[in-house]
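User: I'm preparing a small set of examples for a lab meeting where we compare how different chains pack in three dimensions. I only have the primary sequence for this one, and I'd like the structure in token form so I can line it up with the others. Please keep the answer compact; I'll paste it straight into my notes.
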Amino acid sequence: MALFLDYDGTLVPFHDDPSRAVPGPDLLRLLDRLADPDHREVVIVSGRSAEDLRRLLPGSRCHLLGLHGAQYIDPRGRALDRVDLGPCRAGVRAAAEACARHMASIPGAWIENKGAALSLHTRACDRRDERRAIRRFLEAARGAAPGGALSVLRGARVIELKPAAADKGSAVLWLAERFGGSCFPVYLGDDRSDEDAFRALRDRGATIRVGPPRRATLARHRLADHHAVHELLELIAEPARRVG
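Assistant: Understood. Below is the structure token output for the 244-residue chain.
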């Protein structure tokens, strides 16, 4: 089995400031029990950078897919970029400069520069300011990467300028192939970006949408929230603990 787990909204609850969405000690211990190479592989798949995931999960035995699969770090700490991020970084620099000029006057709007991607977080905005922030972010994004290296992705009160060549679906298939044909993939995620993975695994694995049933999904199963995710992961980890 290979467990593919989104981070924000799936393993940890959302936070107005993403830097404060940190895993507690119980979750870190659970992930360590799950990431037993004799029983299964565990992969964290996120729009965060792979380095940010490594900071949040120090010493983890998990595989890390960052920037929607553009970046990869294996359990030994070896890193590679799955796509050419040079043009992305140049475009992000231009967009970040434009956002810095226009976002300071919008209460609650927060820009996260990930180097090769740029995110606008609006959870702390009221709806009027959120619309204004999104409009200005899109204006900055349009002029950032005329060559098509970057694309815009909308999520749950976040909008991203990300590497166009990367998506969670292709990243999951790439890593599942590395794990071998006997690997059974199970993917858990809560956001629109996870729909790419649900689509990719439709005929070859288990897909679980996390969150209330307000939106249509390609996933075959649902869990209510990150608490339910932890309960499921505990059940998966328990047999391995008994064997050990």
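A couple of notes for your slides: The mean pLDDT is 93. Residues 86-163 form a domain with the Alpha-Beta Plaits fold (CATH 3.30.70).

User: Perfect, thanks.
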